Amino acid sequence: MEQNTGEQISANAPAPDAQAARQAGEHIRKNFASDNVAPVCPEILAAIGEANVGAAPSYGADPWTAGLKARVAEIFETDAAVFPVTTGTASNGLALSALCPPWGAVLCDESAHIDNEECGAPEFYTHGAKLRPLPSADGRIDPALLARALNGHADRGFHLSKLSALSVTQATEWGATYSLEHLREVTDLARGAGLGVHMDGARFSNALAHLGCSPADMTWRAGVDILSLGATKNGALAAEALIVFDPVRAVEMERRIKRAGHVWSKQRFLSAQLLAWFADDLWLRNARNANDMASRLARGLLRQPGATLPYAIESNEVFVVLPEPLVQGLEQAGYDFYRWTTPPGVEGVLIRLVTRYDTTPDDIDGLLASLSAVA
Amino acid sequence: MEQNTGEQISANAPAPDAQAARQAGEHIRKNFASDNVAPVCPEILAAIGEANVGAAPSYGADPWTAGLKARVAEIFETDAAVFPVTTGTASNGLALSALCPPWGAVLCDESAHIDNEECGAPEFYTHGAKLRPLPSADGRIDPALLARALNGHADRGFHLSKLSALSVTQATEWGATYSLEHLREVTDLARGAGLGVHMDGARFSNALAHLGCSPADMTWRAGVDILSLGATKNGALAAEALIVFDPVRAVEMERRIKRAGHVWSKQRFLSAQLLAWFADDLWLRNARNANDMASRLARGLLRQPGATLPYAIESNEVFVVLPEPLVQGLEQAGYDFYRWTTPPGVEGVLIRLVTRYDTTPDDIDGLLASLSAVA
Amino acid sequence: MEQNTGEQISANAPAPDAQAARQAGEHIRKNFASDNVAPVCPEILAAIGEANVGAAPSYGADPWTAGLKARVAEIFETDAAVFPVTTGTASNGLALSALCPPWGAVLCDESAHIDNEECGAPEFYTHGAKLRPLPSADGRIDPALLARALNGHADRGFHLSKLSALSVTQATEWGATYSLEHLREVTDLARGAGLGVHMDGARFSNALAHLGCSPADMTWRAGVDILSLGATKNGALAAEALIVFDPVRAVEMERRIKRAGHVWSKQRFLSAQLLAWFADDLWLRNARNANDMASRLARGLLRQPGATLPYAIESNEVFVVLPEPLVQGLEQAGYDFYRWTTPPGVEGVLIRLVTRYDTTPDDIDGLLASLSAVA
Amino acid sequence: MEQNTGEQISANAPAPDAQAARQAGEHIRKNFASDNVAPVCPEILAAIGEANVGAAPSYGADPWTAGLKARVAEIFETDAAVFPVTTGTASNGLALSALCPPWGAVLCDESAHIDNEECGAPEFYTHGAKLRPLPSADGRIDPALLARALNGHADRGFHLSKLSALSVTQATEWGATYSLEHLREVTDLARGAGLGVHMDGARFSNALAHLGCSPADMTWRAGVDILSLGATKNGALAAEALIVFDPVRAVEMERRIKRAGHVWSKQRFLSAQLLAWFADDLWLRNARNANDMASRLARGLLRQPGATLPYAIESNEVFVVLPEPLVQGLEQAGYDFYRWTTPPGVEGVLIRLVTRYDTTPDDIDGLLASLSAVA
């Protein structure tokens, strides 16, 4: 399977008025397009309202941001530098800029969001570093290919962009999750060759819920230097945490963020979202529901004649190859999802179905029933 | 008066827990540090809650964003391209990148936020363009100095960075407001020399309320190509509208925004803030209150022996020179504000007092009473 | 065959004194490391001396540079913009910066010098555009793979870097040469999809001598927008001509060059080299000799048992797989050349032998005799 | 006196053929436009010819480059890193990129070449750092103004571009030369505030000849971290030495140079120029002649009624204010020079006359005689 074709702008956006918007709301039960079509989860919306009291120092000097740093230290069992930002693309770009000089190169998977879905944001933030994608079966870096890419590059001298960072995606773009052993194997190779390690954790909580390990085990104890931790796909309004485990990498990060226009003047509203997301394990509860719904969906699809699931279901994305008539049938039944690029040689159509923190068993069963009805 | 020393991180941020935060809330009546220490105004917070229904297409294909474009067209009486973004720094950087090539230069006032408070964001977004500050009395570009800067630059050939844009700030960093005549005089000069015109409108609504003219009159009819329209300082959570009047300048703006990581996946929550801000003239009502409170404050200060107001009060900022003991007295009375760089030769201390959409006459009278008590 | 491992810094550079340097001169007959280890050809050195008379306007306003523009117009049968620069890396970077915006992507061959040997210069000059390498058999873009890469990219919206340029290398890094038909096939595909076309002509003269066509036929008539024409590898001291056939692409090129520090103050000495190179067909005579010597070498190698030539010999590079003992034997006999990355599964060692304008039949026969003696 | 208007492209460039060029050669005796209109001095041209023997390793691994490093160590009495490049603009940009991060700022004089004549090259190389010009009487940084600019900047936090480097020009753009005491005073201030120090030495040899001190005294012993040492204006074909005294600043400089396309494949011809320039004190002999001719010219001008020399004559540039009829008279007599921007309030016309390594007493006396004839 070759390349992630991404989340295109939906062609059938609802009409631009509030009533149409509310009608669109009714269709949420049939929307499997992405985790970011969801509304904000109630706890996080409430936290924004609770933060809306009184004056607060601007630009991150507020108590919510200070509280966030303490909370992350607790959860990740280490004194990391934490920078709340708005989007995963910004978080990834900032992280890579701290790991890779302008004349450097970043190794990543060929399906990586940073190389396929961010319109060159890593190149913008790093001032022109190169991404070097490696092929893989399911978005997880193959240690043998990584070793080969690393081998001998140091002897090439200044003609070659300097390999400076490895970026791994956990969970991957295909819904697979690195085991801790796999993760450590690739980070060991990278660090042994002098590279820093970035983790794109847009669906970090889903992977964490799947593995059942600690946040520390899946990050700095496994050789990760910087984590882009995403909350927006899992219930937040717009909130990501850039977490830098290696203090040297955090130097001047505020200036990197400021000059990109990513420091909120009213930053309390960014930090408050993340605090609510961490409170009472909301992040994990949300992730577990999304993962469970994906498993329920996958089990149902496997019972469907003609359906093939090319990837392991280890987070909240389900890729499935279905015969064209079934795909059309789902579309006609009002379901929203993306057709992916079907690999050459595969019969049928590859589609992606994403489950969310607010997906219910009824939503899943409804889709499966629709599919059976079409078939 | 020489240079804006900016909004430093407050040294006495409250302790990082919710109770302390609530206590800090009580001090809001004495906080004149900035317009962005304020909470979100209730109408905008409510609009965020109302937008939180159902699924919405991500990345700007939602009905709120479509509605915003229609609303802006109505308000500005023209079919402009509109891009909601999170911060004024991003909005300014994006605007300048569409007006000035990497080898170009932007003329601006020496007090301009883009040159003094954004840690090089314009240079980041333009890929290295140069800012050329011009001196002024109160942040408004002097037509004579502008003419002189423009004169003859075209003959200098490729050794010189190409003068490509003029950036004006309305209202200025010192609280003054360009008249329409003044504005047109400088934009005519700039456009006559082939430059594009950007308006930093972080306090656009305050200037608009002061002049009482139409948004169209203060922008494209006055020769402005791109407006960075700020809502955050005037009641929003985090929302600015980048408005491009010249369609040629809007080409590929989405890609500029995307690669900077400034496209929200759940963009409805960005657009909904702006829709609420425009609804029922909220933006103007908020601005009028802030302006009125600044005038009330200024009138009171002028009655205070030893106080000097170096600038016209034409928006919501009051700069005042006070004897050091009075400034200390205010600080000891619990008031929050910034000490500015006092120009050489001036006796006393220059401080900045900012009024807001939620400042009340009692707040003003309280400060004036404290000042009298100290004096 | 997978990836060009480039021209590493030679480990055995001669000692840093003039005598040693002169001794190194004696070894020139055994040096097949690269075309750029050669001295300047006498006609070009003489032209530099002849230009060294009197005062000349600086920064390109000299008569040699004006003469160069006229000469190029004559040779290429069109009124192109011509910019003499020092290195091929600068010329390529400048060309791509005029074809591809910072948020764009350039399609090229996986062996391309721009992606493998220039330490990210294209990314530097374009301010962060992405290179998208396509696999090939011998460095020539495969039309089918190109068509697939182009297909559907326009529908992806702003998440995807915009495909903006195709870069072809003529002759390729593996010594093969595009036929005019092949060239037009790929440029037609690219232009049909809205991309500009760049030709890296570091060995343009060798390809031209091989094909025997006109410079116009191999460039703008074949759909090329910008040519990086290299003279340094074929006899010049340090001189390349950046030739822009599409006048729109040449706008502000002087400023691009100036801000990169590539405008010579005494530019007459750059232009004079190129004028001499074009005079009396020197460029083609030099190229023909280098090509002929490569053919002679290839014919000899094919008679050598155990030797395999993986690529067509269509310029002045000869790649050959030899048994390790033979490679060592050549090294011990004092020959200078590069060991390349031998593709997996291939027995023996891949080496590169480069012939030059000053390579003689005796040099070739000497190497072949040494090889026979070792075998 | 306000701003250097630079070296414009001469409008009356000779016609583009060899004969016209030779005629232009005859006018060299009347050309005072710039030091870079001169031909290459014979010793350097000869050295290029002498280097043109045999094969040499490419990209700087040649013995000439190794010899250059040894020679610089000897001359500067320290083991500096040395990188030969083609132009002063490249050298300055590279130096600043090693001293100042993208979010940083460089303090320089308002007349500095880096801010006025390089089309944003420092911004290109630093990826968007800001230049902060300081006013001065004659291009030499005023310690009091420097101290004021440095004062308090560290407390401003991340909103402000980080002051990272000071760039001084020796000799200045106005022909004045820093004394060692003045130099040390400003570098002490800069270093005390954590800034690195760059010296733009386009006319370093002229300043050195004027002061009569050692190269070490005028650089690293005076607090300079990186020197851009120019030879092109003083006899070379195209050669500048980037000399890095602080080894930490030299890390990855090769990659910075390579990705800018400034590594020559035949670098021996770059290093050979510099070796010849240093040999037998050629650089100082050339500089002394140029300086002496400037002094002779200045003495003559002072005898001319109506002439005013606004700056000290401490290198090879003579700025003089003359009545318009005299300036026109010189032009009509065939003299070549630049009219500068005459400061407001000054009567007459400010022109610049530059003397060179090959200027003769007869040239000077001829100009003075012409002037007397006109007057």
TrEMBL record, chains A, B, C, D:
Chain's role: Catalyzes the cleavage of L-allo-threonine and L-threonine to glycine and acetaldehyde.
Biased amino acid composition, Low complexity: 11-23
Record-level Gene Ontology MF annotations: L-allo-threonine aldolase activity
Family to which the UniProt record says this protein belongs: Belongs to the threonine aldolase family.
EC number: 4.1.2.48
Self-association state and partner proteins as the record states: Homotetramer.
Species the sequence originates in: Acetobacter nitrogenifigens DSM 23921 = NBRC 105050
Keyword NADP listed: no
Upper taxonomic lineage: Bacteria, Pseudomonadati, Pseudomonadota, Alphaproteobacteria, Acetobacterales
Cofactor: pyridoxal 5'-phosphate
Location of the region described as Disordered in the Swiss-Prot/TrEMBL record: 1-24
GO biological process: L-threonine catabolic process
Primary enzyme class: lyase
Catalysed transformations (reactions): L-threonine = acetaldehyde + glycine; L-allo-threonine = acetaldehyde + glycine
The protein's name: L-threonine aldolase
Limits of the Aromatic amino acid beta-eliminating lyase/threonine aldolase domain: 32-320
Biased composition (Polar residues): 1-10
Keyword entries, A-Z: Lyase, Pyridoxal phosphate
